[in-house]
Structures are given as structure tokens and as C-alpha cells.
Amino acid sequence: MTSETQNHIVRGFKATLVARAIYMVSSALLMFVLARFLLDPDGYGALYWVIGILAVIQLFADIGLGKSSARYISEYSERDPGQIPHLLRTTIIAKLCVVSVVALVLLVVYDDLAAVLGNPGVASFLAIGALYIVVNSFNAFSQVAFQGFNALGYSAAIQAIAGVARFAFVIALVLAGFGALGALFGYVIGYTVAAAVGITILYERFYRTYEPADEFEPGLSRRLLKYSVPLTATRSANVIDKQIDTVLVGALLTPTAVAFYTLGKQITDFVLAPAEALGFTISPNFGEQKAADQLEQARQIYETSLVQTMLLYVPAAVGLVIVAEPFVRMVFGPDYAGAVPVLQVLAGFVVLQAVTNLTSDSLDYLGRARARAIAKGGTSAANFGLNLLLIPMLGVVGAAIATVITHTVYVAVNLYIVHAELSLHLDRLGRSMGQICVITGVMAVAVLLVTPMVSNLVMLGGAVALGAATWAVLAVVSGLVDPREVRAAIR
């Protein structure tokens, strides 16, 4: 890996991580304030059940155009920059047409859809959902387009704006007395602000700076749409994989059960923010390295990122299992104790999703979107079937178990595809993973031995301190941190 590439990745990662931190802190505060003070479990569950339903509907509005556009922006910014304005204009026109149709259909059928879902009370939520779909679609598009330009600072800024604006408007409307419905409208306003800023920057700083070619390259619009097909399939499978369990929990159980399940998933999302930031940062580089026929450099980037991700997430997942009960009870209150077993099972998902966040976008930029789509489609279908089987038997824990089982298969397939593309050094990676697991296991045993003798507060503090010590040991063993450099810096 050249120093220039490494510095670019580090700068992009820092910007993205800061934005993810702002977004996730605002999300965590929103989760805490709504769950602890403003909404009861029924209201909290109803809000996020509807958001899960809207995420599934949004699949028809997004159809993979954003990611496909980002892939060709990344390619043509090097090859033929004059095509960039044509790519952006075509993508935005296509998105406007599709999003408008989906939103109008939802406005027509929202009453009937609420009845089909077995809860006519959510009809007004679904009506507001038509606006939610439009603004969230363009909020997400601007972030992905900046990723294609490798302008990760802008992408990071839009995400941070979305998080802060969403928090402010959701809390304001709930405090004004509009309840869960007001919270959903707060989401709409927050995403509107982010989308407006993102599209404005995209137009002023990128679209207008490229001199358009005399004509759109013949066949490029067709390739743009064609590549969006596997991306649509992958995104559809990914959203179904993430949201269908929430939708099924609400349909088969109760809004309170949805609250428990959603809370567990939101906590894992917060933990996963650094891995998502790193994956978002490094993925455009794979397209650039492949186009330049520099696969050795691409392999080094991926292997280094994978080991460093596992350095963080294997100890984090083990710690999550240990502290889940005192954490949920102390932070969210005893009303949400039902989220504890969900969170403990989803700790395994944390490790799996960390690998996925690092890998999935990278495969798209390597041109393997079709293979990933097939894998995601198969595991999502399996997840749907397992949820139908396990939720009636085991409740919300059944949904968490189904997620972990199917995601294990998906991660294995993703790693196989990456290995086929980059010829990873499996022996070296295996040794690193072994060291991480052994050291984490020793530290976890130490925590479990002292757990019966301390209070919940002491246990949480001790777990955090021991987690930091575990990471320090792993960082030194793996070579990520050189103790001599640390001592020299202190002096």
C-alpha cells in the first residue's frame, strides 16, 4: 500500500468516523430519551415497527441506482470525467420518477395496507411515510454519490447533519405532544434538511465543475441501469434481512415485543459504527486498484482492515454478552428487561456484521455485485423462513437467533468471493484471528470470575476497563501499536 493511498484512506476514515460518531451519538441519545422518558414500550415499538415497514417499501423507490451511479462515477472520474454530468443527471431523473410513483401509490393505499398488516391505527404513520420515503431516498443518494467521488468528507458531513437534525426535530415534536406520530414526522424533517444540503453540494461542487462531454457515451445509461439490477437485489435482500424480522415480530407478537427487539438491534448498530465507517471509506479504493491492476495493494488494504476490525469487535461482542443485563436495566429501565436476551444473542451478529460492513461495498466496487446479490438473496429468504419458524416458538429471541444463523452463512460466502478476487493470505489471517480469540477468552474468564462479587455499576466500569486492557494487549500482539513509540511519545 503506497503512503499516498494509506493517507487518503486514513483521512477519509477519520472524517467518516467523526460523522458516524455524531450520527450514532445523536441516535443513541434519541433512543435513550424516547425509551426512557418520552414513549412507553408500546409507542416506541409502534414507531420503529412502522419505520421497518417503510424501509421495506423504500426498496421499490431506490432500486440500486445510487450505488450503480457511484460505481460508474468512481470509474469515469479517472477515465472520462466528461461523462460525470450525464451520469448524475440521468440518475436523478430516474430516481425522481421512481420515488414519485412509489410515494403516490403509498398515499393511495395506506389505509388498506394498515388493515392488511392487522393494525389500522398505523394508517396515519404510513401516510406520513410517503414523505419519509422521498426525502430519505435523496438523503441516502447524496451520501453514496459523494462516496463514488471519494469525497468522503462531504458524505460524512451529510450523515452528521441527518443525525443532528433528526434528533432535534423528533424530540421537539414529541415534547410538543404529538407522540410517536410526531417522532416519525421529526424523522421526515431531519432527512429533508440533510437531503437538501447534500443535493445542493453535489450540484455546486461536483456537477458544475465537470465540463460535460458532447454526448452521453453510447451504452453507458444501459450499463448504469443494468448494474443497478444486482445492486437492487442485494439491497432488497439486505433490507429484508434487517427489517423483515422487526415487521414479523410486530405482526406475530406485540408492539412491546418490537420495542425489545428494536432496542437490541439499535444498541448493536451503535457498536458497529466504526466498522461501517471503515468499510464505507475503503470500498472505493478497491474499484480504483482493480482498474489500475494493483490487486496486491487491494489485498493488503483488505487484510489489514479485517484484522484491525476483529481486534475491536471480538472483545466488544464478548463484553456485550457479559454486561447486557446491567446495562439495559440501568440505562433504559426495568420495563425494557426483555431486550437483554435479544442483545446477548445479537452480540454474535456484531462480529458478523462488522465483517459484512467491511466487505459488502468492497465487492460492489470489485464488480462482484451479482455474486453478492445471489448470496444475500438466498440467506434473506432463509432468514424469513427461520423467523416464521422461530418467532412463534421462542419470541423475540427466535428472531435474533435466525439473524445470527443466516448471517453466518452470508459472511462465509462474502469472504469466499473476496478470496477468489484477491487471493487472501489465509494462514496469516488465521493466526491473527486465533490470537484475538485466545486473549479475549482469557480476559472474559477474568471478568466472569469477579462478577458475582461486585455491583452492577462496578461491573460495568470494570468491563469497560478490562475491554480497554484487552484491546491494548491485542494491539501490541498484532503489531498495530508499538510500545516503544508510545513510550517515546509520552516522554
TrEMBL record:
<dbReference type="InterPro" id="IPR002797">
    <property type="entry name" value="Polysacc_synth"/>
</dbReference>
<feature type="transmembrane region" description="Helical">
    <location>
        <begin position="429"/>
        <end position="451"/>
    </location>
</feature>
<dbReference type="GO" id="GO:0005886">
    <property type="term" value="C:plasma membrane"/>
</dbReference>
<feature type="transmembrane region" description="Helical">
    <location>
        <begin position="457"/>
        <end position="481"/>
    </location>
</feature>
<protein>
    <submittedName>
        <fullName>Polysaccharide biosynthesis protein</fullName>
    </submittedName>
</protein>
<keyword id="KW-0812">Transmembrane</keyword>
<feature type="transmembrane region" description="Helical">
    <location>
        <begin position="45"/>
        <end position="66"/>
    </location>
</feature>
<dbReference type="Pfam" id="PF01943">
    <property type="entry name" value="Polysacc_synt"/>
</dbReference>
<feature type="transmembrane region" description="Helical">
    <location>
        <begin position="389"/>
        <end position="417"/>
    </location>
</feature>
<dbReference type="InterPro" id="IPR050833">
    <property type="entry name" value="Poly_Biosynth_Transport"/>
</dbReference>
<keyword id="KW-1003">Cell membrane</keyword>
<feature type="transmembrane region" description="Helical">
    <location>
        <begin position="305"/>
        <end position="324"/>
    </location>
</feature>
<feature type="transmembrane region" description="Helical">
    <location>
        <begin position="87"/>
        <end position="110"/>
    </location>
</feature>
<feature type="transmembrane region" description="Helical">
    <location>
        <begin position="184"/>
        <end position="203"/>
    </location>
</feature>
<feature type="transmembrane region" description="Helical">
    <location>
        <begin position="21"/>
        <end position="39"/>
    </location>
</feature>
<feature type="transmembrane region" description="Helical">
    <location>
        <begin position="122"/>
        <end position="141"/>
    </location>
</feature>
<keyword id="KW-0472">Membrane</keyword>
<keyword id="KW-1133">Transmembrane helix</keyword>
<feature type="transmembrane region" description="Helical">
    <location>
        <begin position="153"/>
        <end position="178"/>
    </location>
</feature>
